[in-house]
Design goal:
66% helix; elongated
Length: 224
């Protein structure tokens, strides 16, 4: 058990933090929702009712979709784009998907390589792009879920204000949907771009996301 915890500490730590913050968001969210209800002189709701509501679902999914968009773009963009001096980048001149030898596929695959990498063909083609495909798929699913939950939550507010509800098509072209979407996208893109640049000049001793402390600024694709 101790070995399992040590070998999987990073994913377990972030998984635990994710669950804690998700629960914290639910507690804070129901309190905020009920405060707004009280301001309008409307009855509040319970915790379970809140976490199954469109309001909570919209808030959660709009964050998820922006995170997976960030990873999808970064995984795909780093195939073709480089940043001189960044640990997050390949070396200048190594742009592109690489050849079979570099990617250790087909006849260049080792005995412990994943089976699709050894076999090649269609399975190998899909597997060689599986990380980007999965990130893109989760992004589209969570973005779709945001649009559905957001529309339901928007219509609750419309009916409360004695306004007509909107269809899904009307909602996804509305200012409410794109305001929610773009405010998340811009923050994720800023964070990723900042990390790519800051890693050129700044260091974090012992981190795999940082170059060695004494590495020159122009060293690219080098990590601890």
């Amino acid at each position: 058990m101790r070995r399992f915890l040590r070998e999987n500490g990073l994913s377990l730590a972030f998984g635990g933090l994710f669950l804690l913050t998700l629960a914290g968001q639910a507690v804070a969210g129901v309190a905020d929702y009920n405060e707004q209800q009280a301001t309008r002189q409307l009855p509040g709701i319970g915790f379970w009712q809140y976490i199954t509501s469109s309001s909570y679902a919209a808030d959660v999914t709009e964050n998820w979709q922006s995170e997976y968009l960030q990873f999808f773009l970064y995984v795909v963009a780093t195939v073709w784009l480089v940043q001189r001096g960044s640990t997050e980048s390949k070396k200048v001149g190594e742009e592109g998907p690489g050849d079979d030898k570099q990617e250790q596929v087909g006849e260049h695959a080792g005995p412990d390589a994943p089976k699709p990498a050894i076999e090649g063909g269609f399975r190998g083609l899909v597997y060689s792009r599986s990380l980007g495909l999965l990130m893109g798929f989760i992004f589209l699913c969570s973005w779709g879920a945001q649009s559905i939950a957001g529309r339901a939550n928007y219509n609750v507010e419309q009916l409360r204000d004695l306004q007509d509800p909107v269809t899904w098509g009307q909602y996804v072209v509305s200012s409410d949907f794109w305001n929610r979407t773009l405010q998340n996208w811009q923050s994720e893109l800023l964070a990723v771009g900042s990390m790519a640049i800051f890693a050129v000049f700044l260091r974090q001793r012992g981190s795999s996301e940082s170059k060695p402390v004494g590495a020159p600024h122009e060293a690219t694709g080098v990590s601890n």
